[in-house]
Design brief:
This protein is an alpha/beta fold and about 500 residues long. The protein has five domains: about 40 residues; about 55 residues, no CATH class; about 170 residues, Nucleotidyltransferase, domain 5 (2-Layer Sandwich), CATH 3.30.420; about 60 residues, no CATH class; about 90 residues, no CATH class. The protein is built from 18 helices and 17 strands. The strands form five sheets. A five-stranded mixed beta sheet has the order 5-4-1-6-9. Strands 11-14-15-16 form a four-stranded antiparallel beta sheet, with no helix packed on it.
């Protein structure tokens, strides 16, 4: 059967002066067929006469109107599938229906729904004025299979997209927190170098709070203050209707698709550090932004100027250090240096880290806890007291936090086998040694002793890990310099 495309190609070749044989060969038809179609006229599709009769008996005769149509009328959301209806009909009429009728039923259902089915939801194409709107959202990216140091990297990506040009800003995040939201928003604005009129998002819990009376959601005070600082207006989608944020949702799909393909080309999903992975993400984002730079140039004149400074991208808590040398922040427990016990400190919670500040001085920085982990205890903060009270180690609430690496855990288990009740004392002293010297040196000593598979105790650990004291050279200098030597040099210079 000759297609419209073949006929068009045939006629184009003939108009360019090709012979009938050459034109027919290019169009993929015989010379006789080319002779029939080379003259101007209707295309093959316009010469077909619709067939109004059946060539075989209707397999759904007697059941379509009586059994299938009532179900389709009831199915306003178009949930029913042909395979389900075939199974239903086979159960009611054994031996009459089977998988061979699925395609026929699919076509019948498609045509009935197009002609007599319920109305479908219509989506309205939007016009985006330049510089008016940006859309923001988080997307889970663990599915990419990225590994940092051999361990699966659980993370999200924050994405900002200008609705007209499609220019995007992307950064890593570890949770949909207020700090991560503000960090991503400000990062996008300052890299863009201007401020649009509107930022559109879904109902992020970091930015909104629930209205108990109306059942809706409104911006919380903290995020409202950030938007007011930049002169931004917020619009939000209806709950459960992600298509209303379609620009950034489509951007998520394209970004993760591009990252997945780039990982295949790279040949590995393993990265040594988070910094290396983040550089990989930014390279991919830069390639995606390459096609939007021309339209971005149209948007820039319509952006408003940035304010003079950023909003602090952290939340401040004023807490008192408890007698356990810990503070509670956002329902998480962190240890701090014991010298702060009893003092009130300022804790700054960033998207990815915690800062402890006392009297304007930052005394500690540590990674922010995320996910199901509820506490972070640094043995260096408590070991100076624990070494004086080693009996507290056995039932210490956060004892598992006092194994900084798997080697230390394995060493403790070995001490329990070799030393019995003295294992806790030896292990606490080992931690004290690691805190007062170098943890890596003590870990190497423990690895060596474990490799020998012989009994050992704290004394042997200390002998292996004791750092070599550097020899300080003794310098002897005269009590007073002899200035006559310097005068002689000056005299030589004058000559």
């Amino acid at each position: 059967m000759v297609t419209d495309e073949q006929v068009r190609l045939l006629r184009q070749k003939r108009m360019k002066g090709k012979s009938q044989e050459s034109a027919a060969a290019a169009a993929g038809m015989s010379v006789r067929t080319a002779r029939k179609w080379e003259s101007a006229g209707a295309l093959p599709s316009a010469t077909k006469t619709p067939r109004g009769w059946r060539t075989r008996s209707d397999p759904f005769d007697g059941v379509w109107d009586e059994e299938v149509v009532p179900l389709l009328v009831r199915d306003e959301d178009r949930i029913l599938q042909a395979t389900t209806l075939i199974e239903l009909l086979e159960g009611r009429h054994p031996g009459r229906f089977g998988p061979g009728q699925v395609r026929t039923l699919q076509r019948r259902m498609r045509d009935w729904r197009a002609l007599q089915g319920p109305d479908r939801e219509v989506y309205f194409e939007q016009v985006h004025p330049p510089g008016r709107e940006a859309q923001i959202d988080f997307t889970h990216a663990t599915e990419l299979g990225v590994r940092i140091g051999g361990t699966t990297f659980e993370h999200l990506l924050f994405e900002w997209v200008l609705s007209l040009s499609g220019w995007r800003f992307v950064c890593l995040a570890y949770g949909e927190t207020f700090e991560a939201l503000v960090d991503g928003l400000q990062g996008a604005l300052w890299e863009l170098g201007g401020v649009p009129e509107i930022v559109r998002s879904d109902n992020l819990s970091a930015a909104t709070h629930e209205l108990k009376r109306s059942g809706g959601r409104a911006l919380n005070d903290r995020f409202s203050a950030v938007l007011a600082h930049y002169g931004l207006r917020s619009t939000r989608i209806h709950p459960g209707r992600s298509h209303e944020n379609g620009v950034v949702e489509q951007a998520h799909y394209r970004l993760k698709s591009a990252l997945a393909q780039a990982l295949v080309i790279r040949g590995s999903c393993d990265f040594e550090t988070v910094v290396a992975y983040e550089a990989f993400v930014q390279e991919t984002v830069a390639r995606l932004n390459g096609s939007s730079l021309a339209r971005l140039a149209e948007e820039r004149p319509h952006l408003r100027p940035l304010p003079s400074s950023r909003v602090p991208a952290y939340t401040v808590y004023s807490v008192k250090v408890r007698k356990w040398s810990t503070v509670r922040v956002s329902n998480k427990t962190y240890s701090v240096p014991s010298r702060l016990r009893g003092h009130t400190v300022e804790v700054r919670q960033y998207a990815n880290e915690i800062e402890v500040v006392y009297q304007g001085t930052v005394v500690e920085r540590m990674p922010r806890l995320r996910g199901g982990r509820e506490h972070r205890i640094d043995y260096r903060h408590v070991i100076w007291s624990l070494v004086r009270k080693p009996g507290a180690f056995a039932r210490y609430r956060y004892r598992e936090e006092l194994f900084p690496t798997p080697v230390f855990r394995e060493a403790y288990d070995a001490l329990v086998r070799f030393r019995g009740e003295r294992a806790d004392v030896d292990y606490v002293r080992t931690l004290h040694l690691a805190a007062s010297t170098l943890e890596c040196t003590v870990e190497q000593a423990l690895s060596a002793l474990l490799g020998e598979r012989l009994p050992f105790d704290y004394v042997m650990i200390r002998e292996r890990a004791a750092p070599t004291k550097p020899k300080v050279p003794q310098l002897s200098t005269p009590s007073a310099p002899d200035l006559r030597v310097f005068d002689a040099l000056l005299a030589e210079g004058v000559r």
